[in-house]
Amino acid sequence: MYNGILNVYKERGYTSHDVVAKLRGILKQKKIGHTGTLDPDAEGVLPICLGKGTKLCDMLEDHNKIYQAVLLLGQSTDTQDISGKVLQRQNINCSEKEVAEAINSFVGDYNQIPPMYSALKVNGKKLYELAREGITIERNARTVIIYHIEIEEIHLPRVKFLVSCSKGTYIRTLCHDIGENLGCFGCMEQLVRTKANGFDISNSLKLDEIEDLRDKNSLEEKIMPIDRVFQAYPVVIIDKKFDKLIYNGNQLKKECVKNTKVLENDCSKVRIYDESKSFIGIYEYNSEKEQFNPVKMFLGD
């Protein structure tokens, strides 16, 4: 079984669920999960967790993401992207300077109303399911953060830009809101996720490339080991006498540690390894009690 994280390039037309299903067939294993959805019309980086790596899914989703988007001004759609039904059209009377100013005004904290065509659940039902039934319900605005926007091209009615944002940001809603701000409507024409959870599009693999690497028995070298995600945490090696404790996910005392010098630095979370350098999991160190408490274990299936 494969264990770790695979940087997959999700192509247009596939849902994130489709990618997981196809990988289960390619890799012949069931334990596979993704770290955050991409719309079917979007493409780009989709980190996929394999085997023991599926325990990382809830730990990776909070990371910031970078997208390259194309905004089409002059029309709005029911899905807020080009694939939806056109609801309104409007002539564009604003200048390129006004467009740039409107886009840059969204940098910072931003109260965004999630779109009806989204996987968010209300009373146990996904919003897009309600939308397909012709039902629109009120949604509460959520605070998201736009860290940075870089406008790459303006050729009205289209604008291509890069955006770095927090978890939960809908780029098609950002495009819609920019159009509303300008008074000429807008929707998202294209979206590519170029970076997510530290993974870059330049190293991502399409499904046919993954299949080819599998056939050549060289896929393993493309899978990121689980512990590399936690490189910022100090390494703590446990004395062999206490293997039973770490293999069962028990609390650990300072005397269990072989390399106690690492604890002289101010650290809270650490990577725990046994003497054979096998990664066990993430522990939190309580310096007052000189005790390690388990946060996430990566042993077992």
How does this structure look, described?
Keywords: Isomerase, tRNA processing. GO terms for molecular function: RNA binding; tRNA pseudouridine(55) synthase activity. Responsible for synthesis of pseudouridine from uracil-55 in the psi GC loop of transfer RNAs. With 301 residues, this protein is an alpha+beta fold. The chain folds into 3 domains: 4-61 and 198-226, Pseudouridine synthase (2-Layer Sandwich); 65-193, Pseudouridine synthase (2-Layer Sandwich); 232-297, PUA domain (Archaeosine Trna-guanine Transglycosylase, Chain: A, domain 4, Roll). The chain contains 7 helices and 19 strands. The protein has helices at 16-27, 57-60, 96-104, 127-132, 171-182, 207-215, 243-247, and strands at residues 4-10, 32-34, 43-50, 65-73, 75-77, 86-89, 108-112, 121-122, 125-126, 142-155, 158-165, 186-196, 199-200, 223-224, 235-237, 252-253, 269-273, 279-286, 291-297. Strands 1, 2, 3, 4, 7, 10, 11, 12, 13 and 14 form a 10-stranded mixed sheet that branches. The chain has a 5-stranded mixed sheet with strand order 15-17-18-19-16. The N and C termini lie close together (10 Å).
